[in-house]
Amino acid sequence: MLVDDIRNSRVLLMEILRAVGLNQVFEASDGAEALQFLRGQMVDIVMTDLAMSPLDGIDFVRLLRNAPDSPNPMLPVLMITGHLTVRRIGEARDAGVNEFLAKPITARGVLERLQLLIDQPRPFIRTMDYFGPDRRRRQDPRYVGPWRRATDVVARQPLSS
Predict the structure, then answer these.
(1) pTM for this model (two decimals)
(2) Which end of the chain is more exposed for a tag (fewer CB within 10 A), N or C?
(3) What is the pLDDT, as a whole number, of residue 61?
(4) Is 10:4 a contact under the CB 8 Å cutoff?
(5) 77: nearest Cα among 53, 143, 59, 161
(6) What are φ and ψ of residue 79, in 5° steps?
(7) Strands 124-126 and 99-102: what pairing?
């Protein structure tokens, strides 16, 4: 599913997806329309713009992940944006976005991110204040135990050498 309030952006993404054989692609012009559509139709991946109105991409993902009536809280989300500031990326990541793609988009960039979503999905986690894909990109194979931060106030198991 493509979610973007700019029709030309949706058309470009649609052409890229069709070029690789994806023919059943749904469109929505904002997050509210996308949520409504998802309540009646199953999709495999959502590609959404960050800056939309009235419901932007970050709010859309927050509702998708956390609303009691969410149609699919674990749906993979690729956020596409021309607003790549550290703050906005952090907000999107903390809302539960799986992957990012910066504008201007290329076919190669779209396909690489889709391949990551499909071939290397990150597990979903739930904490007191977050639900979404694990924000850690790399797993340390030497680590044993439930805690990763030095500030965790639990007995830590030593790393094996």
Answers:
(1) 0.83
(2) C
(3) 97
(4) yes
(5) 59
(6) -95, 130
(7) unpaired
Give the pLDDT confidence score for residue 161 in this predicted structure.
43
The superfamily CATH assigns to domain 2-133 is Response regulator (3.40.50.2300)
CA separation, residue 74 to residues 64, 79, 82, 122, 129 (Å): 8, 15, 25, 11, 16
Question: Which tens digit of pLDDT belongs to each residue from 29-40?
Answer: 999 999 999 999
Under the banding of pLDDT at 50, 70 and 90, the label for residue 157 is very low
DSSP state of 40: T
Q: Quick one: tokens of 38? A: 């998802």
Looking at residue 18, what is its pLDDT?
A: 94
Who's near 138: CB < 8 A, 6+ residues apart? none
